[in-house]
Amino acid sequence: xxxxDRTSSVGGGVCAYINSKTKVRRIYDFExxxxxxxxxxxxxxxxxxxxxxxxxxxxxxxxxxxxxxxCELYNHIQGNVDLFLLNHPDxxxxxxxxxxxxxxxFNANRIKQISGLxxxxxxxxxxxxxxxxxxxxxxxxxxxxxxxxPVGSSDHNSIIVKxxxxxxxxxxxxxxxxxxxxxxxxxxxxxxxxxxxWSPVFExxxxxxxxxxxxxxxxxxxxxxxxxxxxxxxxxxxxxVTQSLKSLIKRRQRALHLYGxxxxxxxxxxxxxxxxxxxxxxxxxxxxxxxxxxxxxxRWWKEIKSLGxxxxxxxxYHHLLSDDNPNCVDLSESYDFLVGLTAYFExxxxxxxxxxxxxxxxxxxxxxxxxxxxxxxxxxxxxGPDGIPNKALKxxxxxxxxxxx
Length: 405
Fold this sequence. Notes:
Deoxyribonuclease I, Chain A, two-stranded antiparallel sheet, alpha+beta, elongated
């Protein structure tokens, strides 16, 4: 039993009974001396993969509270939930307790608006009144509320909350084709491309013919050195999860199954997985997030939401909705004046195609410009229509064809 007794007067307080086999940690920093609450971080032995940890809170809000103390409790709940989700974005938040909403005007819709918690208890707790709430924050999770008689001499009914996680019958797996660009394959490809006689290709003066000849040679060698592999990806995977990390996790799980968690083999692969997770997260941040704030704010915001565990399904305009503009239609009508700012603009005239008799100097390139440009290619981007992997272009840049064009 974990308890937080009332210190201002005799009696009162809140407590929680937790199964002795369940790992639980009381969060003292979340407690407030003026609010009767108890906050705990709970890790059950078996949780769905999508729920790593639970934030469980028990709150008592007496009938003597006024509007000011209601606002204090709103801020108390919002601050603690936001702070916990900052470190555990995928956590399941559950708050239960006696809020006495009828007598003091405590509003469940206000709680949902500021913290995303929804009230799921739909049974009478004392008489015909629903005084005790059960607030949760988790998508794709349904609950069944079962009413039971009071415990002991209590005048409140008790309830059992049964959760049900929707399981997809067909896993949301995608199969993608990717080329095997391991360093060993790059080395073998480099041995071939550096020893191959390219003089017949260089002697061709026509750019189109030269490109077609190069494409025929390169296509066959790319299929030989970089064969395509079919990979399975899950929509639930984090953005920073790579195939190498999945391979290490598979080896770790195999070592756990064969040798146990105290074996040196399992500990070796466990440490490798932990190190690779840190590396993958850091690499993803530097490649996809760090430099996007100034160059591509839209994608920066998308990646930040991904790192924070927020859903992409929620539309961007939900932040602009309010009591005055509760839906998208009202919001658009209030911003109709933006259309009038450019209503008087005349359409741009279509540009007629101008035939150039001479090639301007600014469209020509030289080998000194093409080579460093190829070396700056981002290997994480998609390849072009020629089918040549960007990693091959960057590692073995050949500017001859571009110079001819």
